[in-house]
Amino acid sequence: MTAAASKGVMKGVMINVMGRELRVAAPEGEEQQLAASVDLLNRKMKEIRDTGKVVGTERIAIMAALNIAHDLLNQSGGDGKSAASGGASVDDALVKRKMAEFENIIEKALSDQDKLF
């Protein structure tokens, strides 16, 4: 974590999730990590959309979130322990912050979708 992020300095950042422009708050200095998270989310959502089995942005977002959580648990051995680091604990605070960021992105995308109808 950067010094600015540890002090709580937040910065508004524009992101694009499945063609929707969103402004989100990100700790200053972590814009690249946010961009990587957005790229991952977009890839997962597009994979799900392209299967044609899931319809609707909300359902696609939920399935993408579940897939990302599943991948995270598989990387950590499924029990909160990192398989790659010999059993060291996963940084729970980081995981919670990233999940909160994803939740905010999904909630914003869904609220914008409601305005269309």
Description:
Helix content is 57%, strand content 14%. The protein is built from four helices and two strands. It is globular and about 40 Å long. The protein has one domain. The longest helix has 23 residues. The termini are far apart. The protein has a two-stranded antiparallel ribbon. It has 117 residues and is an alpha+beta fold.
Secondary-structure element string? HEEHHH
User: What average pLDDT do the residues reach?
Assistant: 77
Computed Rg: 15 Å
Helix/strand/pairing category: alpha+beta
Poorly predicted runs are 1-6, 82-88
Q: Please provide the count of β strands.
A: 2
* Overall form: globular
Total DSSP helices? 4
Report the β-strand fraction as a percent range.
5-15%
The proportion of residues forming helix, as a percent range, comes to: 55-70%
Please indicate the count of domains. Answer: 1
Spatial separation of the terminal alpha carbons:
41 Å
Oligomer classification: single chain
Identify the strand order in the major beta sheet. 1-2
- Biggest sheet features: 2 strands, antiparallel
Helices and strands in order, then pairings?
Elements: H1 3-6, E1 10-17, E2 20-27, H2 31-51, H3 57-75, H4 92-114
Antiparallel strand pairs: 1-2
Helix pairs in contact: 2-3, 3-4
